[in-house]
Design goal:
Layout lengths: L3 H17 L5 E18 L7 E17 L5 E5 L6 E4 L5 E2 L6
Antiparallel strand pairs: 1-2, 2-3, 2-4, 4-5
């Protein structure tokens, strides 16, 4: 498994890049308040019909979203849903919907 310092840096890098895509419409602050090491079933790359169990880091929290036109802010939180899932073995970002 990768060192957790490296996992945290990959999380920061990904969240910064993801938030830059929406910067012209609104500014998002990401607040991570819980990180958990767990397991996830993902398809093998060479055979999508075969699943493998891998360790993952899940980052939980919420976003503060500011509308750049009105200045209004709101809190976006999806309880029980990870903000970001990172493969603990190689540091790759995993989309929980597509499972890769």
């Amino acid at each position: 498994m990768l060192d957790f310092k490296e996992i945290k840096q990959r999380c920061r890098d990904f969240l910064m890049a993801a938030n830059m895509e929406i910067i012209d419409a609104r500014v998002t602050q990401v607040h991570i308040n819980d990180v958990r090491l767990g397991w996830m079933m993902v398809p093998r790359q060479d055979r999508q019909d075969v699943l493998r169990l891998i360790p993952v880091w899940d980052f939980y929290g919420y976003n503060i979203v500011e509308n750049t036109h009105t200045g209004e802010t709101e809190k976006e939180e999806y309880l029980g849903h990870s903000q970001l899932t990172v493969n603990a073995l190689d540091g790759s970002i995993i989309n929980r919907i597509t499972e890769y």
